[in-house]
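Hi F.,

I've been meaning to write this up properly since the lab meeting, where we talked about keeping a consistent format for the predictions we share between groups. The idea is simple: the sequence comes first, exactly as it goes in, then the structure tokens exactly as they come out, then a line or two of notes. No screenshots and no reformatting. I'm using this chain as the first example so we have something concrete to point to.
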Amino acid sequence: MSGAWSWVFAGGDQLWSPGFYRLLGLVPNAAKASYELLLTLIHPEDRPLLPSIADVRQGHVPRETIARVIRPNGTVRTLSLTMEMRFSAEGRPVAVNGTALDVSDREQLAHLRHEERRRRGALYLTEHIATFSMGLDLVRELPFEVAQVHGLPLEEICADPYLMIVPEERKAFQVLAGEQIARRVVFQSTAHERLANGELWRFRILTMPVWDPDGTYLGRCGLKYPAGASSRVPAVLREGLEQSVTGHHLRAARALLDWSMMDLAQASGLSHSTVRRLEEGSEHRGSRSRLHAVEALRRAGIRFVAMDDGTLAVAKA
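Output, unedited:
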């Protein structure tokens, strides 16, 4: 939602568009448009971000301000407010035009991402556990705190995370990981890494390919944690693991449950023909149908376990 407003100083005329009224939670034209009214609706903590009436009249306005508005019904929305001054031929400010855009969802998403970065950073500082991703350019996205713990520049370890591994193990680990990445299969192994304080830790690293719903390969997601410590697989990795389930895994799982293809179809809400395509390998890796089938098998007690050689084991709990 967006809106516009204007203020001509000479006559004092102020105009608000219907959209601007609605952004503020007001009925269009039910209240007289005024900059004073706008200021009263701005969240008290954000009010200093907006120029005063005197500042506006003197032409001192920011290009853009992000501020929260408290509507009359008590709801809070975040607005992007822009202001543009108009000047006379002599250079005197004569009017101001403004626009407003509701950016509540964008700001909320940015806040959630910030909090997630903080959480991930704290987790590595305290438990040395990290989730990460890798794009098609093979560059990893890692929390900054990984660099702090290991005493290496973040840019370097994102480009080459093998630098954290002790030299005597580095080459073999890199070759094995590279082979599994090239094959686009699950990779899991352990390696010793030296921390900045001199301590030697043994980590388990698990990565797996990720595909979009159309079957396009997007890269990999991963999990790193101290070997011997139990760590629940995050949702993003669990989906990557499930995307690696192939037709022979499904058939093995059905055999453990003594299920027919029709049994799996009924349990997963899929058609018999879809289950057949999954088992024949004609459904692409990112198919949502695959995830529905795997979830149905999980509910029935089947577990898919990543092995160190890149394969998946099928077990019944």
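Notes:
The first helix runs from residue 18 to 23.
The chain has twelve helices and twelve strands.

If this format works for you, I'll send the rest the same way.

G.
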